[in-house]
């Protein structure tokens, strides 16, 4: 009888624990009510008690101290995670350098507030890179990166996957199109501005504006000089090369230019090559360029 009672008790305990687990899952799951989401946020921020989401009976000073402890614990966890990741990126066969004290202080002040793993990985790679070669990432870039959301990071990743380097240039350009300036074509063709069609490949103008607002792209388009007829131009993407030659002497590219901060951030992001876009770009250029 005792064994039976014990078994029933264990089953009840297991069922109860399972029930509590389901309840917590329902409270924090994607289908939880807005109120439960708000209450859960209050618990995370230390604005509600751990037990039942109701405001604590403790004094305001005690509640402030409780919230401060939670924040400090989270900040410590963030720093330890970033540091541990940085160690995996720091080579042992390369001579290291001392970090600038001011840069180091600002870095850790900002890094402690980075909570998501994906963004923590970016900060870890910055730290590892600076230990090997200081000065690659400015404090201005750190400030921009700190404000960067995961969505903005994904937009940057997409933009870099569609960007090109022209000939021997080291900086990326996001081509928006090309146009015809002068010559007979300008007068006899209905369309003299050819749009690359970034939106067709997942980068609408709203995403471009997102990068502009984040300080990653300049706000206005730039143009190359007039391209020489027959001159070979190498457009390099991540794993795709396009070799072209202008058919006339009146063609020029329009593009978005990355800011210095954008150039620095481009060293951190690992974009995926968009070969569908590259092939579509090649097909588009064939009308006014010879493609080798």
Q: Could you walk me through the main structural features you see in this protein, from its secondary elements to its overall organization?
A:
The protein has helices at residues 2-28, 34-44, 60-89, 101-111, 117-132, 139-147, 150-161, 183-188, 205-213, 260-266, 275-285; strands at 165-166, 173-180, 193-195, 222-223, 233-236, 241-246, 251-257, 289-291. The chain is of the alpha+beta class. It has 2 domains: 76-147; 151-291, no CATH class. A 4-stranded antiparallel sheet has the order 1-5-6-8, covered by helices on one side. A 4-stranded antiparallel sheet has the order 3-2-7-4. Strand 5 (233-236) and strand 6 (241-246) form a beta hairpin. Helix 4 (101-111) runs parallel beside helix 6 (139-147). The longest helix is centred in the first third of the chain and has 30 residues, at 60-89. Residues 1-27 have low confidence and may be disordered.
Task: Explain the layout of strands and helices.
Blueprint: H1 2-28, H2 34-44, H3 60-89, H4 101-111, H5 117-132, H6 139-147, H7 150-161, E1 165-166, E2 173-180, H8 183-188, E3 193-195, H9 205-213, E4 222-223, E5 233-236, E6 241-246, E7 251-257, H10 260-266, H11 275-285, E8 289-291
Number of domains: 2
Computed structural class? alpha+beta
How do the strands of the widest beta sheet line up side by side?
1-5-6-8
Bin the helical content.
40-55%
Beta-strand residue fraction: 5-15%
| Tertiary shape | elongated
| Spatial separation of the terminal alpha carbons | 87 Å
């Amino acid at each position: 009888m005792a064994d039976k009672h014990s078994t029933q008790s264990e089953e009840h305990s297991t069922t109860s624990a399972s029930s509590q687990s389901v309840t917590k899952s329902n409270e924090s799951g994607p289908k939880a009510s807005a109120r439960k989401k708000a209450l859960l946020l209050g618990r995370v921020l230390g604005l509600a008690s751990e037990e039942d989401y109701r405001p604590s009976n403790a004094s305001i000073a005690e509640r402030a101290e409780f919230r401060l402890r939670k924040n400090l614990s989270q900040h410590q966890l963030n720093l330890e995670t970033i540091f541990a990741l940085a160690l995996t990126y720091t080579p042992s066969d390369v001579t290291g350098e001392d970090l600038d004290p001011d840069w180091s202080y600002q870095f850790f002040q900002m890094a402690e507030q980075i909570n998501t793993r994906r963004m923590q990985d970016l900060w870890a790679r910055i730290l590892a890179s600076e230990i090997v070669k200081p000065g690659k990432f400015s404090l201005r870039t750190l400030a921009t990166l700190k404000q960067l959301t995961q969505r903005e990071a994904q937009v940057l990743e997409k933009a870099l996957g569609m960007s090109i380097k022209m000939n021997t240039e080291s900086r990326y350009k996001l081509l928006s199109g090309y146009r015809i300036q002068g010559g007979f074509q300008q007068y006899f063709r209905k369309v003299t501005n050819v749009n690359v069609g970034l939106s067709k490949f997942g980068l609408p103008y709203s995403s471009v504006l997102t990068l502009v607002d984040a300080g990653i792209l300049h706000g206005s388009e730039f143009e190359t000089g007039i391209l020489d007829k027959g001159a070979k131009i190498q457009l390099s993407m991540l794993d795709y090369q396009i070799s072209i030659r202008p058919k006339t002497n009146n063609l020029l590219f329009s593009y978005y230019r990355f800011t210095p901060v954008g150039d620095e951030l481009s060293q951190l992001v690992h974009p995926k090559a968009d070969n569908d876009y590259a092939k579509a770009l090649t097909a588009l250029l064939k009308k006014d360029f010879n493609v080798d």
